[in-house]
TrEMBL record:
Pfam families (alphabetical): AAT
Top-rank taxon: Bacteria
Residues of the Peptidase C45 hydrolase domain: 107-328
UniProt name for this protein: Peptidase C45 hydrolase domain-containing protein
Classification via NCBIfam families: C45_proenzyme (NF040521)
Length: 344
């Protein structure tokens, strides 16, 4: 299995503390082997990092409290934990990849599916965390050691679903760090609330968000960068890799890796062939596709972006229900979870 399933409950600091304790046995070794951490260390003590901290505290005080708890649980300085959680805001390219697909089926159900691609070292070393909060809906999310949940794939008890794709932007800008923003989305009760947060919050880095919600017929693709947010309502089917593709975002300077270009072309070709009876097996097959030298399912030890697929998530969104199935590079789900009713 690519992860362990863990339940956590408490206030903001307590849940952050528990997440930190969960990651503590692995964290030092993980960072020591990480080229991303090596690239981040020169930013220690930089004034720009202080600016990001001030923006985060002012805009998202509850999430900042979780970050402080995370640092306490990790036995790390909060400045280093912030640095790690700002990696995509500071570096133009990191080992956070991913591919997402979305579908509105003929029977009215809605689907969002996602490959979580990251540092190959993390395969089998991550968690699926089920977090119950005192002042928010609570959520289920894939959890990288030492990173606030939300920047991978997740859904909350209000029925909001989010998957995140990395965007490699050639700019740095003061604002709220993108991983704290992604975590905050999982506190939103509705899709409209999530979109308002994305549109109104000052952004430091950039992400692609695929969003849906129980009881809401829409599926949404949102490309977020400093100074611009593009929201596209998905018609019937959609695929997105790790670079900006919305027509109205063409002026944003970015890095497009060979893998991202290949996966974007391939996933668009696959979803264009879907018909009215497409369902869960088709989404899973798309994300487990191995065609080409740089396939959607990434298992190569010499992947040019230093990324491998760590887990595949398939969300089925109904009127009053969200079902999450998580797979580890195979056809049978490791876990099936009814997110809104808190049952496996």
């Amino acid at each position: 299995m690519a992860y362990k399933y863990v339940r956590i409950a408490g206030n903001r600091r307590q849940t952050g503390l528990a997440l930190g304790k969960l990651a503590r046995p692995l964290m030092a070794t993980y960072l020591d082997q990480s080229r991303t951490w090596e690239a981040l260390r020169p930013w220690r003590g930089h004034a720009f990092l202080d600016t990001l901290a001030q923006q985060a505290k002012a805009a998202l005080p509850a999430i900042w409290e979780e970050l402080e708890g995370l640092a306490e649980g990790l036995h790390m300085p909060v400045e280093d934990v912030l640095l790690w959680n700002c990696r995509g805001d500071l570096l133009h390219s990191t080992t956070d990849g991913c591919t997402s697909v979305a579908l509105k089926a003929a029977d009215g159900s809605r689907w969002i599916a996602h490959n979580e691609d990251g540092d190959p070292y993390l395969h089998g070393r991550c968690h699926l965390v089920d977090v119950a909060l005192e002042d928010a809906p609570g959520y289920v999310s894939f959890y990288y050691p030492g990173s606030l949940p939300g920047h991978t794939f997740g859904a909350n008890r209000a029925g909001l679903v989010q998957t995140i794709n990395n965007l490699r932007l050639r700019q740095r800008h003061p604002g709220v760090p993108r991983m704290l923003m992604a975590r905050a989305i999982l506190d939103c009760a509705t899709l409209d609330e999530a979109l308002t947060l994305l549109r109104e919050m000052p952004h430091s880095g950039g992400f692609h968000h695929t969003l849906g919600a129980a009881g809401d017929p829409r599926l949404v693709s949102a490309e977020v960068t400093p100074g611009a947010v593009s929201v596209l309502e998905i018609g019937t089917r959609y695929g997105h890799a790790n670079h900006i593709v919305h027509a109205d975002m063409g002026g944003v300077a970015q890095i497009i890796t060979d893998s991202s270009r290949a996966r974007q072309n391939r996933i668009e070709g696959i979803v264009d062939g879907w018909s009215g009876d497409t369902g869960r097996d088709d989404l899973l097959a798309a994300l487990h596709d191995t065609q080409g030298e740089l396939p959607i399912l990434r298992t190569a030890p010499d992947d040019p972006d230093d990324e491998n697929t760590l887990a595949t998530a398939v969300f089925e969104i109904q009127e009053n229900e969200v079902t999450l199935r998580v797979y580890d590079r195979k056809a049978k789900a490791d876990i099936v979870l009814d997110v809104m009713s808190d049952t496996e």
